[in-house]
Amino acid sequence: MKYGTMTALPNIDEFKTELTQLVEAANDLQSLEEARVSALGKKGKITSLMKTLGQMDPEQRKQAGQTLNVLKNEIGDLIKQREDALKRADMDRRLQEETVDVTLPVRDRANGH
Length: 113
Known about the structure:
Number of helices: 4
Structural class: mainly alpha
Oligomer: single chain
Order of helices and strands: HHHH
Helix content: 55-70%
């Protein structure tokens, strides 16, 4: 479905569900960034819809603009929450894997001259 060529908005609930699933499917920061670009990037789906606002009559444009801004903010917040969760999970994983053995003897340091 090409979103940039529509004169009316697609079903926003379905569109939001699609973008939400895309964000929630991201299981690492790289895939989350790809989802962000796909939704909010310069050629993203929401950006493409926002570009069609100029083709609408003023009343329809006002309503569609408000709806798209709310959607954009919701998806942005969802991406931020997912990013925080992924960073916490990565930190927890690293804390489990990377340990320091405090029972080892201290290394000798070379004294300067």
